[in-house]
Amino acid sequence: MAKSTLADPPVMTSTAEPLRPAPVRGVHLRRRNLWIWAFLMPTVVLYGLYTIYPIVASYWYSLVEWNGFESEQRFVGISNYEAVLADPGFWNSVWVTVVFMLLVAPARIILSLLLAIVLNSPKLPFAALFRTVYFLPVVTTTAIVGVVMQFVFDPASGPVNAALQTLGQSRGINFLGESGLALLTVSAVYVWKFFGITMIYWLAALQTIPRDLLEAAKIDGASAVQTFRHITLPLLMPFLIIITVLTVEDTFRAFDLMQTMTGGGPFFSTEVIEIYIYRWAFAASIPQLGFASAAAVLFGLFVMVFGFFQLWAVYAARRLRVETR
Amino acid sequence: MIATHPAPRRASSLRDLFRRVPWWGTVLLLTLLALLWIYPFVWMVSASLKSSTEVFSGGVSLWPEVFVWENYARAWDDAGFGRYMLNTVIVTVATVVIVVVRCALCGYVLGRYRFPGSRLIVGILVATLFVPTGYTIIPIVKLSMELGVLNSLTGMILALGGAANVSFILIYAGYFRQLPKELEEAAIMDGAGFLRVFWTIMLPLSMPVTATVALLTFLATWNAFFLPLVFSFSRPELRTLSVGMQAFVGENATDWSGMAAAGVISIVPIVALFLFLQRYFVEGIAGAVKS
């Protein structure tokens, strides 16, 4: 390439330099820009309609009273927000969302790290097979897993209670029917379902640790715990930040599992914010779309706080990575 | 056995065996955990082959007394899972095509060119990296109604294909950015235009990214629930597998074996695809952390 451009300078001037716009070739540039916008069009239209517009429109909808899709919208100012914030049900759903997050995120992050370290060892037989098995629930349809789990945990004749009975537990445990227990049960299923993703994250992170570093530590007589404490863990820190944020963001998408396993019940004990919104917007006999939109906007702000945390985390992780290098 | 032979080579292999004992212990533990892990699926397959009364009477035995294959026929025909499967395939394939095309085009332009507004676009995209469905669902339904595509597969496809998918655009942009500039310079010298450079050089080079994006979109769409649920409220014949499953339980709460058969029908295709193409699934998910 270099040779031909040297031999033929005029051609060189007429080639486009993609990253540096040239000053003279106006027509060429205009045509290039037309192509650029043509390429952007599908995303601009679809993403604009189905992502940007809904974000903006939510704010408008949250300011109107609006029962159903056909009827009139009446501007009511911030009264929807007042109503949402005064509703104990909303605060309950915020509480459930936070508790759910605190239950599942640490479990996913810590347990999957332990398993990933074991599976990452080159000496472990069948490591690939185990990875496949532990990852398998991730690819299955959450809504279907939720329904199946309803039956697995059935108090009368589900296999879990049948197993407990053979172990001597005479009365069945109503895992999903008792408000104290339901959130724990769904959390356990959620951890099981998405455990594989976090494990793959960790395996990818562990790949970045140079093997000779671990071997050097071994030669110096470091124990497994010491190696983990002084070599593996510091090198994993940047990933810990990112994986934590990714996992926490994930917990905001619990709708599929909650809706199919418990539908938010019993007595709203598993009603996360998404289910709360769904209940008021679609499952109520008279939909309260303005009210639900106000809850959705608050939910969006809630998630956005974590979005900023995300940006900070990426920044912090980059800096950590540069330092440890 | 081995121990009775005093030959030095054998002795060392014996020592090897002993050194490996902790590893075999680990393997045993991991195997038990793995069995627990796949138990719900094994139970589902077993329940799908039992009679309803046998599932209902409980017991821990996984082996059916009588194999009731008729459960599958009931789920496929009567419960409508044949129809739901067709809907799911249509929605999934169309969404994958839309997402791959629009993300590749957008990622190419953003990764390879600097133009007025390009930084702004990237900024807006990043800002919406994590928008939950619960936040956008109400305006999407209203919009679809105004466009006249609510209660249709088209509406479902557009909404699923129009969902942010920002990470895919960024993956494409990052990939296209690091390709050497000489590639397209040579093509332009040969007289190729913008579209041709993209179509004949850049797109084929991005096959690994395309495979990952296509698979992850396939997975997400096949398993989607919230949007298809809302879009098929008043048209049961538009249900996808995941929505159909929930409706099935609502309508026939006692037909456990039919429900299990429906679950197997719904999950087998996606699991089979995963087993064939694991590497891409895993690399795609791992990529989120590496970059």
UniProtKB/TrEMBL annotation, chain A:
Q: What is the lineage of its organism?
A: Bacteria, Bacillati, Actinomycetota, Actinomycetes, Pseudonocardiales
Question: Can you name this protein?
Answer: Carbohydrate ABC transporter membrane protein 1 (CUT1 family)
Q: Which InterPro entries match?
A: MetI-like, MetI-like_sf, UgpAE/MalFG_permease
* Gene Ontology biological-process entries: transmembrane transport
User: Into which family does the record put it?
Assistant: Belongs to the binding-protein-dependent transport system permease family.
Please state where this protein is localized: Cell membrane
UniProt KW keywords: Cell membrane, Membrane, Transmembrane, Transmembrane helix, Transport
Tell me which domain of life the UniProt entry assigns to the organism this sequence originates from: Bacteria
Q: Which GO terms describe its cellular component?
A: plasma membrane
Q: Which residues cross the membrane?
A: 34-61, 94-120, 132-153, 181-206, 227-248, 289-315
Q: Show where the ABC transmembrane type-1 domain sits.
A: 94-310
TrEMBL record, chain B:
What are the protein's UniProt keywords?
Cell membrane, Membrane, Transmembrane, Transmembrane helix, Transport
Broad class of the protein's primary localization: membrane
User: A GO BP term, please?
Assistant: transmembrane transport
Q: Which part of the chain is the ABC transmembrane type-1 domain?
A: 85-277
Membrane-crossing segments per the record: 21-42, 84-108, 120-141, 153-176, 197-222, 256-277
Does Mitochondrion show up as a keyword for this record?
A: no
Subcellular location, in the record's words? Answer: Cell membrane
For membrane topology, the record states:
Multi-pass membrane protein
A Pfam family this chain is assigned to:
BPD_transp_1
One GO cellular-component annotation of the UniProt record comes to: plasma membrane
State the family named in the UniProt similarity comment for this chain: Belongs to the binding-protein-dependent transport system permease family.
Designated name of the protein: Carbohydrate ABC transporter membrane protein 2 (CUT1 family)
Please give the organism. Pseudonocardia cypriaca
Lineage from the top down? Answer: Bacteria, Bacillati, Actinomycetota, Actinomycetes, Pseudonocardiales
